[in-house]
């Protein structure tokens, strides 16, 4: 007997009746959120959205292989990127607009009967906003919304693979490697050396942790790069994708994550 085909996990490729069935099966909906912004002298502006979509799709396929019903929305390709505007090529939303878009998406999902929503973030500038949005939407929609930024949720396996960085930066060893793995034709390898730049200390380098200041990327790095793209390779990019997808799939397939009590009023 021929093996059954893998289930379709892309929302945009499914019919409305198939999506109604997924809602009835309590499928997890992954909402990937990215950005459109400068990525140094060697990478295209859509890096965060391209990589975030790949992470979401690979995670969903790993979840489906475990028998978990799951579907992935198309990538939300713009987010909060004011700190990149000085380099050009960036499209940014303000927080109220960004929040309204995320709320509209989640409201639509809830109206269709989906009860498990994961906001999968692929851009650091979105993180604070998405955390606040999750705090507001969870009681508003009465849903246990999960928010995760992929390099934080998979920090340990990422750190074990990277050689010159402790974590993912910007247009760095990791992002360059991942782009080499999936879209090598968009990586200007002859310009990677231009990523070396004058840089300024981080706030934590001056006063230690626990203190925050908003700063533009241009004020941190004259090239718009934070990290070391010279250490990138396609092989490293594939290893990163595999490790990230496996880690996120394990976490999102954990039934206790979704069953964990979140509202004291509902327990009373």
UniProtKB/TrEMBL annotation:
One of its GO terms (molecular function) is metal ion binding. It comes from Limobrevibacterium gyesilva. Keywords: Hydrolase, Metal-binding, Zinc. Belongs to the creatininase superfamily. Pfam families: Creatininase (PF02633). InterPro entries: Creatininase-like_sf, Creatininase/forma_Hydrolase. Its cofactor is Zn(2+). One of its GO terms (biological process) is riboflavin biosynthetic process. The keyword Glycoprotein does not apply. This is Creatininase family protein. SUPFAM superfamilies: Creatininase.
């Amino acid at each position: 007997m021929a093996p059954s085909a893998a289930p379709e996990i892309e929302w945009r490729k499914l019919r409305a009746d198939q999506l109604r069935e997924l809602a009835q099966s309590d499928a997890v909906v992954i909402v990937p959120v990215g950005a459109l912004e400068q990525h140094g002298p060697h990478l295209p502006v859509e890096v965060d959205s391209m990589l975030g979509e790949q992470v979401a799709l690979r995670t969903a396929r790993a979840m489906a292989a475990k028998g978990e019903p799951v579907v992935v929305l198309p990538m939300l390709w713009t987010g909060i990127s004011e700190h990149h505007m000085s380099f050009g090529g960036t499209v940014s939303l303000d927080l109220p607009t960004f929040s309204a878009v995320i709320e509209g998406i989640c409201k639509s999902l809830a109206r269709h009967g989906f009860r498990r929503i994961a906001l999968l973030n692929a851009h650091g500038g979105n993180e604070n906003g998405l955390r606040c949005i999750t705090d507001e939407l969870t009681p508003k929609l009465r849903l246990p919304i999960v928010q995760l930024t992929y390099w934080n949720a998979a920090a340990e396996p990422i750190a074990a693979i990277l050689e010159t960085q402790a974590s993912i930066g910007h247009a760095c060893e990791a992002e360059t490697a991942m782009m080499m793995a999936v879209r090598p034709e968009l990586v200007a390898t002859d310009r990677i050396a231009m990523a070396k730049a004058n840089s300024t200390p981080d706030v934590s380098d001056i006063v230690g942790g626990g203190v925050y200041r908003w700063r533009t990327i241009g004020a941190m790095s004259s090239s718009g790069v934070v990290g070391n793209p010279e250490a990138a390779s396609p092989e490293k990019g594939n290893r990163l994708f595999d490790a990230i997808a496996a880690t996120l799939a394990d976490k999102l397939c954990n039934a206790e994550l979704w069953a964990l009590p979140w509202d004291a009023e509902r327990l009373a």
